[in-house]
Amino acid sequence: MPKRIKQTTPVEFLENTDKSTAAEIEQRVTKVYELLVNGATRRQIIQYANSEKVAWNVSDRTLDTYIADARTLIEAEAATHRAYEFGKALTRVDDIYARSAKVQDYQRALAANDQRNKLLGLYPPQQVQITHLFEKAGVTVELVTKLLDALQTRGIAASDVFNSMIAELSKEDVKP
Prior knowledge:
By secondary structure, the protein is mostly helical. It folds into three domains: 17-72; 75-120; 131-173, no CATH class. It is 72% helix and 0% strand. It has eight helices and no strands. It has helices at 10-16, 22-37, 42-50, 60-102, 106-120, 131-137, 141-154, 158-173. It is flat and about 65 Å long.
């Protein structure tokens, strides 16, 4: 004898299911977004979701999905804001240039033009002369070569190590 499927109304179906609706998920992701923006950690978000007041009744894995979705929203917003802020900065510099040139303040106009070129990345990257820093520290070319080989073997970016070394050695050159 075939099983009979119980007929339910849409409201009864929603009341009897454990699945969250799309609207509930959207609200939860929005709340997680707010929590992340305010500095909440994963543990704090889990505590919030499991609190008696909220009781989302979802697994940690589902919460991780909510967190990932909220982070994607934050990243998208940051990308949008970056483009907006870049455009705003460029417009301000252009305005300063135009106003300065109009009143024949060429020094300020050149400074604005220089700033505009920096914003647009028109200058080549700055080269840092580090040989004197290595010599000061007693580091030889052979030692640097061995270090580079060891870093490459371990999959470590040499630039990260050298930037750190330069920063440390440069501190010694700076006198308060």
